[in-house]
Amino acid sequence: MIFHTFGDENNKKIMFLHGVLTPWQIWEDAISAFEKEYFVIVPELDGHTEEEKTVFESVEKEADQIEEYIREKCDGELYMLAGLSMGGRIAYVVVGRQGIRIENLVLDGAPLMKLPAILIKVMEGNYKSIIKKSKARDPKVLRSCEKDFLPKRFVEDYLKIADNMEESSISNILNSVFTGIEIKELKNVDKILFLHGTKGNESVSRKAAIKMKEVNPHTTIKVYKGYAHAELACFESEKWVEDVRGLI
Question: What SS3 string covers 18-37?
Answer without folding.
Answer: CCCCCCHHHHHHHHHHHCCC
